[in-house]
Specification:
This protein has 287 residues and is of the alpha+beta class. Helices cover 48% and strands 15% of the residues. It is elongated.
């Protein structure tokens, strides 16, 4: 399995589980479902047990479903995840383990005879999971578009990509990168948690997020990839792929992925070099 996809999924799950909104939403849903007692839980469970039951179901099933959907999306790559049909498919697939978790929990609490039939439960959960997956994808697109509009740089004089940290904007125009901080740090580091603001290594696009790597760790930032590159001013770097940018000083040397050119970074990451950027990568001595 693709190690980069696994690592990206792990980081995304860490971000979600550390999110205050996730826990507040889960708590609100558990209270609502605990008070209303749907699916026979009103008569079968006392109020404290119902609250605990729905809180557990909410956290475990969402984590399992969201984690699997994210992994499938990372394995497919950003090109295919533009289509909502893929998100519906990811959600339906994620519904399989979610249904099994719910069935096992109910069988343990109420007995196998009282648990819902697994085939019917699976079909229902897969359908619901597919719809939820599409809704989440649409919400993330809207959030990403809003963040990009706020971070979009203003057009100015054209500058070269190599060694300046800038990149073409949409429509083939170029934009001047924002000036670096007074101490020479690239602006992109200000978007990272303080403990991860180290020496910039490389950046990779992950759907609507940019995975920013430093020598102190990594973080996902919600913004356009071109805007993230524009905020690397002060670092001698190069875009080597539509989804990857590297700091030249943090590149260890050339590598291969399935026989195709790639760059090995000091942290062990291996990033592909696409045909469109191969000449610039050769000029920079990366391949």
């Amino acid at each position: 399995m693709n190690d980069n996809a696994l690592q990206s999924t792990k980081r995304e799950m860490q971000r979600v589980l550390a999110s205050r909104s996730f826990w507040l939403t889960t708590l609100a849903a558990a209270i609502l479902l605990g008070l209303t007692g749907p699916f026979g839980t009103w008569s079968a469970l006392s109020l404290p047990v119902r609250l605990a039951y729905w809180a557990f179901v909410g956290v475990v099933t969402y984590a399992a479903g969201y984690g699997l959907v994210t992994l499938l999306a990372n394995l497919q790559g950003p090109g295919r995840t533009k289509h909502l049909a893929f998100w519906a498919g990811y959600g339906a697939i994620a519904g399989l383990p979610v249904a099994l978790i719910v069935w096992a929990l109910n069988a343990g609490l109420f007995g196998r005879a009282a648990a819902p039939a697994l085939p019917e439960l699976t079909a229902m959960v897969m359908a619901v999971s597919a719809v939820v997956s599409v809704i989440v994808a649409l919400l993330e697109r809207q959030t990403g578009a809003a963040a990009s509009a706020q971070a979009r740089p203003q057009p100015d004089a054209p500058v070269e990509n190599l060694g300046t940290g800038t990149a073409p904007t949409s429509g083939g125009q170029t934009a001047r990168a924002p000036e670096s901080q007074p101490d020479g740090r690239p602006k992109i580091l200000d978007r990272l948690p303080p403990e991860q603001r180290g020496r910039l290594s490389h950046m990779s696009m992950q759907d609507h997020y940019v995975d920013v790597r430093t020598d102190r760790g990594s973080a996902l930032v919600l913004m356009r990839f071109s805007d993230a590159i524009a905020e690397t001013a002060g670092v001698d770097g190069l875009q080597i792929h539509r989804s990857h940018w590297v700091a030249l000083a943090m590149a260890e040397g050339p590598a291969r992925i399935n026989g195709k050119p790639a760059v090995r970074m000091r942290d062990g990451s291996v990033l592909p070099v696409s045909r469109s950027y191969i000449d610039a990568a050769r000029t920079a001595g990366l391949v």
